[in-house]
Amino acid sequence: MPELPEVETVRRGLQPVLEGARIVRAEARRPNLRFPLPDRFAEHLAGRLVASLGRRAKYLTAHLDGGLALICHLGMSGSFRIEDEGGSGVPGIFHRERSKDAAHDHVVFHVETAAGELKRVVYNDPRRFGFMLFAEPGRLAEHPMLAGLGVEPTGNALDGDLLADLFRGRAAPLKSVLMDQRLIAGLGNIYVCEALWRAGLSPRRAAGSLATAAGKPSVRAGRLAQSIRDVIAAAIEAGGSSLRDHMQTDGSLGYFQHSFRVYDREGEACPRPGCGGTIERIVQNGRSTFYCPACQR
Ligand SMILES: [Zn+2]
Asked: What is the distance in A from the centroid of ligand 1 to the CA of 193?
């Protein structure tokens, strides 16, 4: 499943084409993805202007004129590509290569961009775990997919005070609390492992240990908040530079250039200078956790 930085990279890749564009025509080539497409999907979209393209956690959101909003999730294998007479480009750089097989092109938006160019924005999804849904005008934040989501891990709102507030009294391990989308939205397995390594904190440590009895943040809480924001920002940055490198080409897919320090590195030496530890893999809540028992306490 794409992680938040990949979804943000897709958003940034689509933005120059879609923002301010008019949807001339939409094509739904099958009635469903993970869920049925909305009733009269193509008809509702035809003629609408795309006011802005946003993201909430791992959901892409498009605000259309008339107040209608489109919510899109890429699922396991969804991707967009942009086509025109002059070639094509793939917005979004993924850790794993994405399909370009036309048999899996399920939704096509024919748009006239703000600059007056005619483009096709094609949604491809071999496994069809992705979805597209409408939110009623003005009710995007209350949509069932978005309503219960916690704070974004990208902005200034995420600090030691906030973590202390979320963590106080919780005996559950840090790893599982950080993965809880109702608390922090859009943090996935990879970046939780990476952020905990950066902060030097064990994924097994009780989350509540980062807050004092009075609910004040410990020094560790501040360090963890900074690590989460840094690791996500660095990945979005890496995605952005990959996007610049690959959008110019013939549409051949790039790979996400971000290199992980602990994720998927079981048995390798810990990259922290002077640590000397070895990365281990444990299973928490059915998911692999990678960490260094020597420097993550
Ligand atoms: Zn280490």
From this structure: 13
State the pLDDT confidence band at 89, using cuts at 50, 70 and 90: low
Does residue 283 sit in helix, strand or coil? strand
Q: Percentage of the chain surpassing pLDDT 90?
A: 70
The residue-averaged pLDDT of 231-235 equals: 91
User: Going by DSSP bridges, is the β-strand pair 131-135/69-73 parallel, antiparallel, or unpaired?
Assistant: antiparallel
Q: What is the pLDDT of residue 224?
A: 98
Cβ(6)–Cβ(92) under 8 Å? yes
Q: How far apart are CA 17 and CA 4, in angstroms?
A: 21
287 labelled catalytic: yes
Across 134-143, 164-173, 228-237, 257-266, least confident range: 257-266
Structural domains of the chain, ranges and CATH numbers in brackets: 4-142 (3.20.190.10), 160-291 (1.10.8.50)
Q: Give the pair of three-digit tokens for residue 282.
A: 């444990």
The answer to whether 73 and 56 have CB atoms below 8 angstroms apart is no
Neighbours of 172 (CB within 10 A): 15
Q: Which of 22, 237, 287, 293 is catalytic?
A: 287
